[in-house]
Design goal:
By secondary structure, the chain is mainly α. The chain has one domain (2-8, 18-146): TerB-like (Orthogonal Bundle), CATH 1.10.3680. The protein has helices at 2-10, 19-34, 42-56, 60-76, 80-90, 93-107, 115-127, 132-146. The longest helix is centred in the middle third of the chain and has 17 residues, at 60-76. It starts with a helix and ends with a helix. Residues 23-139 form the Co-chaperone DjlA N-terminal domain. This is Tellurite resistance protein TerB. It comes from Palleronia marisminoris.
Length: 147
Amino acid sequence: MLSDLLRRLTAPEPEQMPDGDARLALTALLVRLAKADDTYDAAERERIDRTVASRYGLAPDAARQLRQEAEAIEAEAPDTVRFTRAIKDGVAYDDRIGVIEALWDVVLADGHRDEDENALMRQIAPLLGVNDRDSNMARRRVEDRRA
């Protein structure tokens, strides 16, 4: 399964992803963002687990297993540009807005916006085909939920 997803992520013309692959790819993107500041701690892993559990209606054990599989994908996945292009081509726009919101949730998990995480978010949003306005609105929704 992982090799099939990696093959699809690196294909010259990414195809529409089945739901399970899209979940795995999007969770791997959360992992990549969490690692952007060279720190990937338990709080970030727990935030990813809660995010994917909520987003996909998973039990805690299933969310943890999805994250662990995503960690393996992230470690082997191509550069962020090709990775996000595959997601953009395989995931509907409304779902990509939800991904941006989940990404902001991970960025804000520790209570501050790290410069490296901000830089990666500025790169990821347009690569996913999400405009600045929608990304900012997603960030504000996350901040409002945290307030």
